[in-house]
Amino acid sequence: MHFSLLQSPLLRPLLRWTAPLLLAAFSLSATAQATAPSTLRIGFQKSASLLTFQKSSGSLEKKLAPLGVAMKWVEFPAGPQLLEGLNVGAVDVGFVGEAPPIFAQAAGAKFVYIGFDPAAPEAEAIVVPKDSAIKSVADLKGKKVALNKGSNVHYLLVKALEKHGLKPSDIQPVYLPPADARAAFERGAVDAWVIWDPFLAAVEKQSGARLLADGRGLVNNHSYYLAERGYAEKQPQVIQALFDDTRAQAAALKANIKAAAAVIAPLQGLEPVVVEKSLTRYQFGVKPLTAAVAAEQQKIADTFHAQGLIPKPIRVADALPGSATVAEAAR
Q: What pLDDT is stored for residue 37 in this prediction?
C-alpha cells in the first residue's frame, strides 16, 4: 500500500507550524532576489572624465559591495548610442548631455531622469581651423559643419545659428562621431566642428583650432544621470550609493585637478595638460532635478520640434521620477 509522509499523524502538527514559516522564508528569499540586483551596469563615455576617474579608482565597486552588488562599466562612443543601450536593456544607468534624452524620448525610449550635474557652458564649442576665413557663426551659412547628431552640441549649434539669424537648414550638417569628425576637420573635409571636452581641449591644443563660439550666453550644457524607470524605482539604495561615491570622487578630482588629469589622461588617450584644461571647464556634483532644470530640458525639446529635428512634441515631465525615493537618492 502506498503511504505518504504528509499523511502521517505524527507530522501533521509539525507541518501546521512549520509550513507558514517555510512559505514566509521562501517569499522573503524570492523578494530579496527580485529587489537586490547582482550587478549595476553603468553606461559611460570615455570622454566623461569624472566617470572615467571613478572607474579607475574602483571606489564604486567598494561602495556597492556591502549591498551585494557588483559593477559593470559599459562604454559607448557618445550619448545617443548610450541611450539606445539603456532603451534595449543593455545598461541600468547612464550619463549623457542634455540633448540625447530629448531625441531618445521622441523616439519612444523608456527612461527616467535621476540627477544632473551643474552647467558647463564653456565645455562645448564651435571651432574652425586656425587659418580659416570663417570669423563668426554667421559665416557658417552654406558651410559643412561636423557634429555628433543628437548629442549635447546639437542644441548649441541650433542656438548659435539662431542668434545669428540662421536656421539648421542654412548649413550643411555632417553627422560624425568625435573620432571621425576630428579626422574630417583636420583634413579639411568640413569647415567647422561642434564638439565637447575633452575633445575640444585636444583640438585646441594639438591643432590650434580657433573658437568661434562656446556655450556661454547660449546654453547651459547640463549633463544628466538617467536610468531605466523600473530599476530606478526598485533600487534607490543602489542609486544612493552611486551618487554618494560620485560626489566623493568629484570632490577628490576638484581638490587636485593636476593629479586627477594624470590618472585620466592615459585612459582617454590624451596629454595630461589637455585633460587638465578640460577639467577646469566642468563642474561636478550630482543634484536632484529641479523644476527650473526640467523647464530648460522642455525648452530644448520644444526648440528641436520647432526646427523639425524631432518628429513630435514631447513632455519632459513624462520622464521625470515618479517615486520620491528616486529623487531622494539624488539629494
A: 58
Q: Tell me if 212 sits within 8 A of 84, measured CB to CB.
A: no
Q: Do residue 114 and residue 229 come from a single domain?
A: yes
- The burial class, CB within 10 Å (0-12 / 13-18 / 19+), for 97 is buried
Residues 262 and 206 in one domain: no
Q: Do 151 and 189 reside in the same domain of the chain?
A: yes
Amino acid 9 reads: P
**Residue spans of alpha helices (H) in the chain:** 12-35, 49-57, 59-64, 79-87, 100-106, 152-163, 178-186, 199-207, 229-234, 236-255, 257-268, 272-279, 291-306, 324-329
Average pLDDT, integer, range 258-265 = 97
| Widest Cα–Cα separation across the chain | 101
Place of cell 585636444: 202
Residue 236: give the domain boundaries. 37-120+222-269+283-329
9 occurs within a structural domain: no
Q: Please state whether the peptide bond connecting residue 272 to the residue before it is cis, i.e. omega within 30 degrees of 0.
A: no
Which tens digit of pLDDT belongs to each residue from 98-144?
999 999 999 999 899 999 999 999 999 999 999 999 999 999 999 99
Q: How far is Cα 115 from Cα 321, in angstroms, rounded to an integer?
A: 10
Orientation of helix 199-207 relative to helix 178-186, angle to 10° = 20
Q: How far is 196 from 125, CA to CA, in rounded Å?
A: 6
28, part of any domain? no
Distance (Å, whole) CA 221 – CA 205: 22
- 157 near 126, Cβ under 8 Å? yes
Between CA 124 and CA 193 the distance in angstroms is 10
